[in-house]
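Chain A, query sequence.
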Amino acid sequence: MIKRLIFVVVSIGTVLLVVTSGISQIDRETKDDLYSEIELYSHTLTTIQADYVEEKTPKDLIYGSLRGMLSSLDPHSQFLDPEEYKDLKTETEGKFGGLGIEISIRDGLLTIITPLEDTPAWRVGIKAGDRIVKIENEITKDLSLNDAVKKLRGKPGTPVKITVLREGESKLLDFTIVREVIQIQDVKNTQILEDRIGYIRLTEFREDSAKAFRKALEELIAQEADSLILDLRNNPGGLLNIAISITEEFLADGQTIVSTKGRRPGQDTIVRSTNKTHLVQWPMVVLINEGSASGSEILAGALQDNKRAIIVGVKSFGKGSVQSVIPLPDGSGLRLTTSTYFTPSGRSIHGIGIVPDIVVELQTPLPEEGKGDRQEEIDKVFQDVNIQETQDPQKTVEESKETEIHKRLLADNQVQSAMSILKGIRVYKDFGQAASSPAPKTQDTQQIKM
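Chain A, predicted structure.
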């Protein structure tokens, strides 16, 4: 028992050290209150250690108390044990195990911010805004975000059953999703849609996203693009510095990207573009939806407020709080909400989202029907056979996929709206240039002498 109490005292000492270093800027009265409450914490800890029905290690007790402390603050703050902290760092590098969903607690319910494209959750039909009410038939009420992540993740190849409540549906929906190692391709589908209109899909902000995005822009420049559709639909955010780096591609040096406001003046920041060398000045449309959150809302809001792009789609998710990841001495960490985001004009994002300049609801295309469908399928089979006999099969598959993606984008009504806007800007620009140009010199008929 004495050894255990020694461990407890050492553990409390560690907590006090961390707390003391973290409150150096807090006034004396607050410090005194905190120390008096820590005495209560210490008494409770030693009582549990001595009298609880099951023996618990000091680490178990302290980790448990830290989880409770962080979860009581807001849905996004959490304590991460060493394994969870390592998983978080792995996520930002773009490879992790799971279902392929970004989740949060919203209005007390476990909510899917977005399913990540080409992941198990995406393929079974999970949608942004779905509320997870059960995991493996266990009610998720009062389940912390951290515990939900633990239940949803698991060994690749194993299934997990979730039950969701979806707005507009009259009954609960059950999904069985097989876990996979999730590999995120942040920048994808870079191409010219038509008439020199470029398209880039940005799915998340991770460590290498800014480099990949710059490369995509260079590809479009090489293909002589003169306008851009930036697709941020179902982009849940990611690393703030990467979102800022990508935003800088389109804003000149000195233009405001985002500001943050915390509890103390020292936490307030204003981030401005530092781009002096490679400014992209194409007319732009940015696509957003209810799955666009955090970093993607910062990007869209910055371009909207600076009159740099037209925002099209539906209102974004509204996740505008800043979580700082703070490592702790034993390899664990804190994800702590330290401030909130504001757009360059001072609009708050949190709980509100970005409202598009032009609202366009996504229309799900209906499957084509007709007598000729079967014959077209047959013709396609024989066409594919002929192609495969004369070409590299792998190359053929890749080209076929690119063609399919191109067709799907052209059939997307939100993309169609974006293209129409960019074409309209082009026509208006040409019209304005023609109107401001001097008229061509012609012979004045009134001066002709007969």
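The radius of gyration is 28 Å. The domain at 187-323+338-359 is CATH 3.90.226.10 (2-enoyl-CoA Hydratase; Chain A, domain 1).
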